[in-house]
Amino acid sequence: MAAPTSEAAVTVSAHIKKVAVVGGGTMGNGIAQVFATGGFDVHIVESRQEFLERAVSTIGKSLERVAKKLNWAPERSSEILKHVQGGLSLDAARTADLVVEAVTEDFATKKLIFEQLDAAAPAGAILASNTSSISITEIAACTKRADRVIGMHFMNPVPVMQLVEVIRGLATSDGTTARVLDLSKAIGKTPVEVRDYPGFVANRVLMPMINEAIYCLMEGVGSADAIDTVMKLGMNHPMGPLALADLIGLDTCLAILEVMHDGLGDPKYRPCPLLRTYVAAGWLGRKSKRGFYAY
Ligand code: NAD
């Protein structure tokens, strides 16, 4: 994990001090962790107390791993964890300078949240979405501050991955974009600005490969292990596409493919039937302990 520079955090914190993260699942807890590590006060909003507790406990364990790897002073992890609070109400947005939404990849769910965030958050606050594929322009249109709505697409696992894909909606202002690019650097990430288009760049390129790997499995071309080994040893990928799909979450993969299939209208993005079957069975990958592999 790249350590953020505290001077950078101080510069950005002239504008942004408090960050609310809505959704503390696979992505939300990692996003909260990197902001807290960068010196920001973070408030996680979850839908249930047990999910909130799981998010905070995941951050604690992850910080311990980072501390070991980077040889941190013994008290550093607990100091960072003190910057993380949580609750079940979007009222936390009332004092936030930035909100990062990381709930389920479903437009109706995000729409409801952005309407409520727009009503609750201070007028100058930036509302960002970590969506993998849903239009930022459409999300922004649910608010009365489309100029201050932007995509901040973190990669999984957030504390480890360098990239933040920054997506400008049609009405996102230059000022909002500049602040978010700055902020991404302040937490030790490398931002890349892209256009608002279904799947943006990351998933437009990644998801067809994952989907094709699932077709190979369904058609019996190879076992899950064979497919992943071919891609790891043959293409030098750090992990195989099926293991990566399990890490991302199979429900999330399906939702992204649906958005690309609908948005781009090209049958090459149709989700593999086996992916639908696994999601219908509740086999969602690592988070449900069963996907293409058992965990
Ligand atoms: P997840 O299922 O692991 O977590 C989603 C969390 O949102 C859950 O903990 C759920 O309880 C919470 N939630 C749902 N509705 C809520 C509400 N109304 N209020 C508060 N919390 C609520 O999903 P995830 O993988 O973390 O994905 C979150 C977002 O990040 C999605 O938009 C997804 O496309 C995107 N994303 C995911 C990945 C990935 O690899 N999983 C990578 C980049 C971006």
Question: What labels describe this entry?
Answer:
single chain; 295 residues; alpha/beta; 8-stranded mixed beta sheet; 12 helices; 8 strands; disordered N terminus; binds nicotinamide-adenine-dinucleotide
Give a summary of the structure in a few sentences.
With 295 residues, this protein is an alpha/beta fold. It has helices at 6-13, 28-37, 49-70, 76-81, 107-120, 136-140, 174-186, 202-218, 224-235, 241-248, 250-264, 273-280, and strands at 18-22, 41-45, 84-87, 98-101, 126-129, 149-154, 163-168, 190-195.
Account of the 3D structure:
This protein is α/β, with parallel strands linked by helices. It is 47% helix and 14% strand. The protein is built from twelve helices and eight strands. The chain has helices at 6-13, 28-37, 49-70, 76-81, 107-120, 136-140, 174-186, 202-218, 224-235, 241-248, 250-264, 273-280; strands at 18-22, 41-45, 84-87, 98-101, 126-129, 149-154, 163-168, 190-195. The chain has an eight-stranded mixed sheet, sandwiched between helices. Strand 4 (98-101), helix 5 and strand 5 form a beta-alpha-beta unit. Helix 8 (202-218) crosses helix 11 (250-264) and helix 11 packs across helix 12. The longest helix has 22 residues, at 49-70. The chain is globular and about 55 Å long. Mean pLDDT is 95; it is low at 1-8. It binds nicotinamide-adenine-dinucleotide.
